[in-house]
């Protein structure tokens, strides 16, 4: 196993040219059931605007054709990527198109054939979200075939692989996951349930994003693009890559309004509730 010793998952710019990433949400709805993920919010809002459950491979190709290769493609988003049967096809297509590839997955929906195909590719980061002991995730998904797949993955020659867990590793995986490659994390406070993480106070006035996520955007199954990985309720939709060019996402009225509100203009701004946000006044 190749362990990625240079890229830190806490640093969104690590190994990303120009800091630009397009995360891909391949499906609406997720069976993994992480209690700190507001999946119900996303599914409710997404289904209200589109009946597309899965991102179609042809639609993904059309969207990707509008995205410059300097932009990394990350298979992560608001749900488990491999719940879409075409996910490996999408990864291979993005890689062949010249994009840097990043992956964040629980492996649910993946199989041995997918894994063998992925071994032929190079990744900037291949992050495995490890199942915990059932405190936060649907541990019933950790069965014989899944455990075997995790074991195959650990033994596979996949570049830049890391493992991340929130809480304690599932007992059936403890002896398989290499401790030296395991990162222990915690939920983010912008959208998660208040019983799990206490949300911070809303910031008034001008704000900054410590993670600079303005160009770390989310592609949804219907082609819509949201501002960042915290926008589960589609509060800031920048455009749609089935009709808009990538550069237009940042030159249109939606992004302009976000920029104005970050500069201090009144109006709803999700960033004000995010733990990555800071007050510009406080930095002066």
What do these coordinates show?
Strand 4 (125-129), helix 5 (144-155) and strand 5 form a beta-alpha-beta unit. The termini are far apart. This protein has helices at 39-49, 57-64, 87-96, 112-118, 144-155, 253-262, 280-283; strands at 21-24, 72-75, 101-105, 125-129, 161-166, 182-185, 207-209, 216-219, 224-226, 237-240, 277-279. The model is unreliable at 5-17 and 189-198 (pLDDT under 50). It is globular, with a radius of gyration of 18 Å. Helix 2 runs parallel beside helix 3 (87-96). Helices cover 22% and strands 16% of the residues.
Brief overview:
With 284 residues, this protein is α/β, with parallel strands linked by helices. It has 7 helices and 11 strands. It has a 9-stranded mixed β-sheet. A two-stranded antiparallel sheet has the order 7-11.
Share of residues in helices = 10-25%
Strand residue percentage: 15-25%
As laid out across the biggest beta sheet, the strand order is 6-5-4-3-2-1-8-9-10
Mean pLDDT across all residues, rounded?
Answer: 86
Q: Name the poorly predicted regions.
A: 5-17, 189-198
Compute the number of helices. 7
Number of strands: 11
Give a short account of the largest sheet.
9 strands, mixed
- Determine the N-to-C terminus distance: 46 Å
Shape field: globular
> Using only CA atoms, what is the Rg?
18 Å
The chain-level structural class is alpha/beta
| Order of helical and strand elements | EHHEHEHEHEEEEEEHEH
């Amino acid at each position: 196993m190749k362990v990625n010793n240079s890229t830190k998952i806490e640093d969104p710019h690590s190994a990303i040219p120009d800091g630009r990433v397009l995360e891909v949400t391949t499906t609406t709805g997720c069976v993994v059931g992480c209690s700190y993920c507001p999946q119900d919010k996303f599914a409710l809002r997404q289904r209200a605007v589109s009946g597309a459950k899965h991102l179609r491979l042809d639609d993904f190709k059309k969207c990707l054709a509008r995205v410059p290769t300097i932009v990394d493609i990350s298979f992560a988003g608001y749900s488990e990527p491999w719940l879409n049967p075409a996910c490996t096809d999408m990864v291979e297509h993005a890689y062949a198109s010249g994009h840097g590839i990043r992956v964040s997955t629980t492996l649910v929906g993946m199989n041995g054939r997918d894994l063998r195909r992925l071994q032929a590719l190079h990744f900037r980061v291949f992050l495995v979200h490890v199942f915990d002991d059932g405190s936060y995730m649907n541990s019933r998904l950790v069965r014989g075939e899944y455990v075997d797949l995790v074991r195959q993955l650990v033994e596979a020659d996949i570049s830049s692989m890391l493992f991340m867990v929130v809480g304690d590793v599932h007992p059936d995986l403890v002896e398989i996951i290499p401790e030296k490659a395991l990162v222990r994390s915690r939920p983010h406070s912008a959208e998660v349930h208040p019983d799990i993480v206490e949300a911070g106070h809303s910031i008034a006035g001008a704000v900054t994003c410590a993670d600079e996520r303005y160009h770390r955007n989310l592609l949804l199954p219907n082609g819509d693009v949201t501002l960042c990985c915290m926008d589960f309720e589609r509060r800031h939709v920048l455009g749609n890559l089935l009709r808009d060019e990538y550069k237009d996402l940042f030159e249109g009225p939606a992004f302009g309004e976000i920029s104005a509100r970050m500069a201090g203009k009144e109006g709803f701004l999700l960033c004000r509730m995010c733990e990555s946000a800071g007050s510009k006044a406080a930095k002066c």
